[in-house]
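User: Epoxyqueuosine reductase. Structure?
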Amino acid sequence: MGGSLHYFCVLSESLLIPQAHTLSYDAGCNLNYQELANNIKQWGQELGFQQIAIADVALNEHEEHLQNWLAAGFHGEMNYMARHGTKRSRPDELQPGTVRVISARMDYLPPDTQIVEVLNDASKAFISRYTLGRDYHKLIRKRLTQLGKRVEDAIGHYGYRAFVDSAPVLEKALAEKAGLGWIGKHTLLLDRSAGSWFFLGEIYVDIPLPVDEPVSAHCGKCSACIDICPTQAIVAPYRLDSRKCISYLTIELHGPIPEALRKPMGNRVFGCDDCQLVCPWNRFAKFTQEDDFKPRHQLQDRTLVELFMWDEETYLRNTEGSAIRRIGYQRWLRNLAVGLGNAPSTPDVIAALQARAHHESELVREHVCWALTQHTGAAKTE
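Assistant: Predicted structure:
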């Protein structure tokens, strides 16, 4: 997520963590490290990454920022953000022996997904563009592992471990330190030639590769991302209160969505891309070349009613291999109920909500009741 969770956080650590290779590389061997670093970048591009860069593991400033963010409670229910102490900001504690991090970027924005058109049509369901296709975790982790193995083929056994939202890793901080971009005011990573519509992944290594230089920040006086946020979750430049963020509300939050934030959610039912959509640097973003990231099941242009009427079997079938699957069927209906509460009062919308009014899940029933009230209340005032 510069992404997202290209996003403000890493995803839940319930994801499978790849087994680490034993760190036993002899750092005293005679290698041309600069040549090896150049080769790694070339091999990474051959594997489909748009950019590869290398950072050291000193993240003192970012560690302080993380601790302040946690102390403010901005992580909400994402307890995993605080669970591992300093392992998140000290790579060598997470993986002993780590001295460098290979940071990788892969573009994910599908072409022709009509972002503005869907957002402006209150009968449609807006799903964050990073999750329209197959789950990126497996694809990127596989490519990173292939890159790590290619290095091993070239130099012999060494220690490495690949991560894609699968462990406590400060991926945006490491990418910024490696020079893949700068962390913008919306807390996503930005690149002058690529915007922010990309995923990040890392390989922790125990070989002293030459590091790349960070780039300077170029947000300037622009506040477009802060101004556009539907729930005003960007409480200050570079400071996100996740508890207000629609990505958090629709993906990370397990219980009821706070009523005060339901109307501002509009038709955003899985994630939110508004801050990326208005960022001037995204005029330079490139469309993905990966077929796996392109939309499946027409999720880029579905109505709220259509998706709300999926039974659980249909939901599971149509979200197989998708990041959407992780929220489960009940939260899927919860999110869609909020969208329907904000949709135009049509017979189809009312009928769909009434069909779920007695759903077995209290969470679903409560949000359906709220949604129906939005329509009945509106009708009484006409």
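Strands lie at 51-55, 100-107, 126-127, 160-163, 182-183, 189-190, 198-205, 234-236, 239-240, 268-270. The chain has one domain: 1-302.
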